[in-house]
Design goal:
Chain B: It holds the Pfam family BPD_transp_1. The complex is a heterodimer. By secondary structure, chain A is mainly alpha-helical. Helix content of chain A is about 75%, strand content about 0%. Chain A folds into two domains: about 55 residues; about 210 residues, MetI-like (MetI-like fold, Orthogonal Bundle), CATH 1.10.3720. Chain A is built from 15 helices and no strands. The chains are: A mainly alpha, B mainly alpha.
């Protein structure tokens, strides 16, 4: 074993170098978020936050907390809506063999290919008439369109793997379809629920297109708009902007550390990002 | 194909043949006809999502089509009595001086991004199939750019590419190259957004291609090594041909998702300066929302052209996928 590690150390070194190169922008975001305002225009810029300041993060605490709260509410709302819609659908497509299920599957795949801005324009026209612009529930519904087709796909694939005998046994014991779904299928699909929830949360947390069109200028705006307003106002406090960006990246970081296996599974299963 | 999204706790099993991008259509419904009561139960479970698709996909799409076929002004947009003008909006868009550059930029942006994302992704995927310490951890870290909110990536790149204070120009200066106006010069803005978008797209390619590589049997490589094939030959004669199905799927999906990239470009350059980084996606938004006087009709028309393009490639994707599922 020792000889083997001895021969591969240079691969580890190369891997570390490539990763460092790839993650440099992330490091730079951190570095700038800690840079004091007076050093921001320094040329060349400091490579390390030697005289680091937390001013940027103080600004985030002062100004961005409402945005973060809104994003959290919208993210959780999107998760609930997505799972509630896609888990039953996945169960039906995987186990109940509905007539016309193939068409529904096709429609779901096609739905994923519609560009986000087109959806945003349609939603804008509809919400304008319904008076739903600048409302949090409206944005939750719009954001859920990012995740529902993916959710159905994951649930269908996952639930196909649940042995039919198990469902047959539940049926023999007198459980109806609803009961079987609730007490047998759903508990067994915990992993799929986690995967779908993670992505639904991440996508709605990251959404900029729907937020920018549907709730721009409203009382409750998500964090993506918080950052966008910072940049748009020609704000020169880049440490505050980057500090907000760091805070907005936290969910992604948490998910990567705690739930990496779900992420990899989601990506290979057709994770799609707008 | 069916077991492809198996429980995530079997990481090695989740992509058996690599092309696990989308679940295949379930076995034909007629294979085993179920009793009518079961059909009712099935559709009861599907009812919410069907209603949802109709209300929140079909209807916005229909509204968008309607927008593109009428002469909307801000007033008639609210009142909803705009006169029907047929393909007038499409004609306006085709005659617009922005049309040709937007088309060119969309093609260049999509093509260059795909090429680099795929090439870099594949090179990294091959590298990470080798066993070395930290291999899995580092591969996981490569996912970070893909997980970050696009606004975070876009604003970070904006600052890195800033003409006066950006780290990129500082690095170029250190090797004796003069400052480049990455975001403010018409000749560089498209390059800048392409660079940022490649960075974001590499992880997806890496992960999917890496799982595709897992399905190539190691015995093939051993046999080739015994026959005296060097690493380069093994790659071109074994890896590349056997990875073709996965590559096709990855590229097609990448194509569909790169066509509709909007956030990155809008946040970094707003399609400017002087339309030098405008694509169909940003142009559509610009027309509908970017000006003081919105042109909803032409905006929707541009958007619908984009939908058609995405759906055409989508159909090709489904066809390729079905062919692979059968073979």
């Amino acid at each position: 074993m020792n000889r083997r590690t001895g021969r591969t150390w240079w691969k580890t070194a190369l891997g570390l170098l490539l990763t460092a190169l790839m993650l440099f922008p992330v490091y730079w975001m951190l570095n700038v978020s800690l840079t004091p305002a007076r050093d921001m225009r320094k040329s060349p810029p400091d490579l390390f936050p030697a005289h680091g300041t937390l001013d940027g993060y103080r600004t985030v605490l002062d100004e961005q907390l409402p945005y973060l709260g809104t994003s959290l509410v919208i993210g959780l709302g999107t998760v609930v809506l997505t799972v509630a819609l896609s888990a039953p659908a996945g169960y039906a497509l995987a186990k109940l063999r509905p007539r016309g299920g193939g068409i529904l599957n096709f429609v779901l795949l096609a739905a994923q290919m519609i560009p986000g801005i087109i959806m945003a324009m349609g939603f804008y026209a509809i919400y304008l008439q319904l008076g739903l612009l600048q409302s949090v529930p409206g944005l939750i519904v719009a954001d859920s369109t990012l995740a529902v087709p993916f959710g159905v796909l994951i649930f269908t694939a996952f639930m196909s793997g649940i042995p039919g005998e198990l469902l047959q046994a539940a049926k023999t014991d007198g459980a109806g379809a609803l009961r079987t779904f609730w007490s047998v299928v759903l508990p067994m699909s915990r992993n799929a629920v986690v995967t779908v929830s993670l992505f639904a949360f991440l996508w709605s947390w990251s959404d900029f297109v729907f937020a920018g069109t549907l709730v721009n200028g409203g009382a409750h705006e998500p964090i993506t708009l918080g950052i966008y307003h910072y940049i748009g106002n020609n704000n020169q406090e880049w440490n505050a902007i980057m500090a907000t960006a760091v805070v907005a990246s936290l969910p992604a970081a948490v998910i990567l550390v705690l739930a990496q296996r779900y992420v990899a599974a989601g990506v290979t299963a057709g994770a799609v990002k707008d | 194909m069916k077991q492809t999204t198996h429980p995530p706790d079997h990481p090695s099993a989740h992509v058996r043949n690599g092309a696990a991008i989308a679940a295949p259509p379930p076995a034909p419904a007629r294979a085993r006809r179920r009793p009518a009561s079961e059909q009712w139960a099935a559709w009861a479970f599907l009812a919410p999502v069907t209603l949802y698709l109709a209300l929140f996909y079909a209807y916005p799409l229909y509204r968008n089509l309607d927008l593109s076929l009428r002469d909307y002004t801000v007033r008639s947009f609210v009142q909803g009595n705009a006169p029907f003008t047929g393909i007038e909006n499409y004609r306006t868009v085709l005659d617009d001086p922005t049309f040709a550059p937007a088309l060119l930029h969309t093609v260049v942006f999509t093509g260059v991004c795909l090429l680099f994302q795929y090439a870099i992704g594949l090179a990294l995927a091959v590298f990470f199939t080798q066993h070395f310490r930290l291999s899995a951890t580092l591969r996981a870290l490569f996912l970070v750019p893909w997980l970050l909110p696009l606004i975070v990536s876009a604003s970070t790149w904006s600052w890195m590419l800033n003409s006066d204070s950006g780290i990129v120009n500082a690095a170029l200066h250190a090797v004796g190259i003069g400052p480049v106006n990455w975001l403010t010069s018409p000749s560089w803005s498209l390059t800048s957004v392409i660079i940022a978008n490649i960075w974001i797209g590499v992880p997806f390619n890496l992960v999917v291609l890496h799982s595709g590589l897992q399905s190539i049997p190691a015995s093939l490589y051993e046999a080739a090594a015994l026959d005296g094939a060097n690493a380069w030959q093994r790659f071109w004669r074994i890896t590349f041909p056997l990875l073709r199905p996965v590559s096709a799927i990855t590229l097609l999906l990448g194509l569909i998702y790169t066509l509709k990239v909007f956030d990155i470009i809008w946040i970094m350059t707003k399609g400017g300066p002087a339309d030098s980084s405008t694509t169909f996606a940003t142009w559509s938004y610009q027309l509908g929302f970017g000006n003081l006087l919105p042109a909803f009709g032409p905006g929707a028309a541009v958007g619908n052209l984009l939908v058609v393009a995405a759906l055409v490639f989508g159909l090709i994707y489904l066809k390729v996928q079905r062919k692979q599922a059968l073979s």
